[in-house]
Each structure stands twice: as structure tokens, then as C-alpha cells.
Zinc metalloprotease (Arenicella chitinivorans), 459 residues
Amino acid sequence: MSGGDMGFFYSVIGFLLAIGILVTVHEYGHYWMARRLGVKVLRFSVGFGKPLWKRIAGPDQTEYVLAAIPLGGYVKMLGENDPDAPIADDERHRAFDNQAVWKRALIVAAGPGINFLFAITLFMVLGMQDAQRLVPVLGEVSQTSPLGQAGVESGARLLSIDGKPYRHYTEHDVYIFNKLLTREPINLTVQNASGVRDISMPTQDIPIYKISPATLMHQLGFTPIGAPATTEVGAVSAGYPAYDKGLLPGDKFVSINGEPVTDWSDLVRIVQPSFGRPLSLVMERNGKQFDVTLTPKTQENQGQKTGVIGVSAKPVPRPESQFVTISHSPVEAVVAGAEQTWLMSMTMVRMLGKMVTLQVSHKNVNGPIMIADVAGQVIQIGWESYVSFLALISISLGVMNLLPVPMLDGGHLLRFAVEVVAGRRISEKVYLAIQPLGLLMLAGLMSLAFYNDISAIFN
């Protein structure tokens, strides 16, 4: 099986496993709460469409189903949104629609709720593992970045943010992203050769339209201290100029157009703006130098052209001094997991709100294709990366289901809230009449997600 085939295989497996786990968890929340409150559950289905596997079990003879289309699931309860369904007199008290509004609300909210609890549990498991993380010492800080403009210099160590200890690089990425979305200043305590000082980095003028969580810290200027310098090639990609000219793993760059190359950043700095122009390279192989002339291939990313030659650096182990061991007690891990889940949830809510008002790019909405691609990558990295991915998708599922959109859990909760305020239920005819609106909104969101996925593939 080729590398591309293996990548596709891992993407399919990683995606289906994630969807299967998270849909089961979500629907189990509805199921468990319904059973606890005495409501009869008729069917528990993971997936839609034709059943692939079915079993009837339990005192209520509940039908458990694994269906063909794995993009969702549902729990069917007695008398749920079906006033004309025949119900035996001795079971009317167990019908969903006959329950008090608070019971119906708890059953509906239990689905998203258990997604958040599941994420907290996963973060707790990760937090209890001893982990090696980069010390929060900054590498080269661009003077045009917000951090550089605030007066922070290269080599400074981050000590805290808003009083929270900064123990390792990336520890507070989500917190900082939330501060940026709310336009609050970011207050840092840093240490450099001249001592410890507090700085306040304003966020009001930082453009956020094209900023995404993945690139945020780099764009703000939070660049970690670099790995030891190297000019040695680790891999050469087929179909690129370096491969066509016969460069091999282990070759070392000596100079480009007469300019010495002392580390990989020199190579990137020279090659990227040189798309379409020939470069004269001096390389070293087995202690002997040789000359190569090649022309970087032009690639376009988000409207910007860059030159690439198809090589990557040989990984160089970082010294132990650049790492710190992070560990949590069980209680600390739970608290940290809850905080991380809350921050990520608020980030998603604020991102959605700013997308509606066109303050951030719609390209931050990803669909199943990109999710599957990421799933395939993280499942190959290791179980910890995949667990972190599951936690993130579980939070996304919880947030999306709480949106006040007809057909989603949030739409049902909004309906119950109106019932409490009005003192009577919304008629079934009215509710059915507005359901197409919810379907249209979901279809629009999914269309946007697929459009972004396909655009990313072609780009």
C-alpha cells in the first residue's frame, strides 16, 4: 500500500472511529437521562438509514441499532413529537411529551452536556500523564508583531499571563485567543537579561479576520526558541526541483547564490521569495562539495506566492534544557480539563458570532473532509494526539447542538423556554412549520463547510 493509500486509510479509520465514539456518547446522554427520569426509550440508533445490526434488549425491549450512514444518531422515546401515536393507558406517564418541561429540558440538554463531560474526562486523562513541553522562552521576536511592538525582546522568558503561571510554551494559547476575540489587553510578566517586568499588549487594533487558532501565536509574535541549527536535508519530495536535480537525504546546504547558509531559516528566507528564478546552490555530500542550479517551484497559499524546492530539514534533538516536565494530580487534572473545555467552548461560540458579523473568516469552518484528514494525521502521531482531537471534536459537537436552531437540541431548549414564558406549549403545527428553517440553516452551514474543504484541497 502506497503512502497516499495509507494516508487515506488512516483518515477513514480515524474519522469513523471518532464519529462512532462521539455520536454514541452524545446519544447515550439523552438515553441515560430519559431512563433516569422514567421515560421509555424505544430505539437507540448510532447512524441513520438502513440498519446494519440490530438487537432488542432490556425490560422496555429497547431496540439498539447500528445504521449505515455514520454521520449522526438518535434516541426515539415513547410519544416524542408524535401526539397521534397510540400509547397504552398504563404507559402514558412514561411518554416524553407527557413529562414536565424541566424533565424534557434535562433529557435534551443531557446530549450536549455529556459531550462536555467527555471532553473534560479526556483532558483529565491527558493531564495526568507526565509530559515534556518546551520552556516558554521566546525565539526571534519580530519587531512588527504585536508582541515586538509591546517591547518584548528575543530570548525573554514568559512567566505569567493575567497572573496565571506560564509553565510551558502553548499552555495558554486558547486563553489568549479568547482575549483577542473579546479585544481585552493581554497582560504578561516576562523576564530577560535586565530583569522581570510587566507588559500590557493591546488587542484592539490587531486584525483578526484572517487569524485562526492554528496560526494565532505565531502571528502575535510568540515564537518558541529554535532547535539547534542544521542545514542537513532530512527528506526530499518527488515531483519537486530538489528531487529532479538529484539531491538526497543527508546532503547539506553550504551556500545559495554565494550567500552562506548556516541554518535552515537561512534556506527558507532565500528560497521562499525566489519562485520562478534560478538559484545556484553549493551542497556537501560525504565531505565533498558540489554545485547545483535549480528553480524553486511556485506555490500559492491564501493568495500569496512562495517558492519551494521540496526538501525538509533533518530533525535535530533539542537539548534537555529546552524542556520542562509537566504533571498534574488527579484534582489538578480535572480542574485543568474543565477550564480547557470551558475556554474552547467560549472560543467556538465567539468565533461563530464573529463569523456571522463577518469579523473573522468563514474559512475557519471545517467539514468532514478536513476533519477526516486531521483524524488520519493525529491517529498516526500517537494516542495522546488522537485523544486531544476527540476532546476538541466532542466540544464542537456539544456547542453546535446547543445552537438555537430548529431540529438541534438548542432549538428544542429554546422551544421549552418559550413554553415556560408563555405558560403553554408551542403547537405542533407551528413547530413543524419552522423546522424547514432549521434544515435550511444546517444545509447552509454544511455547504459552507464542504466548500471550505474542497477549496483547501485545490489550494
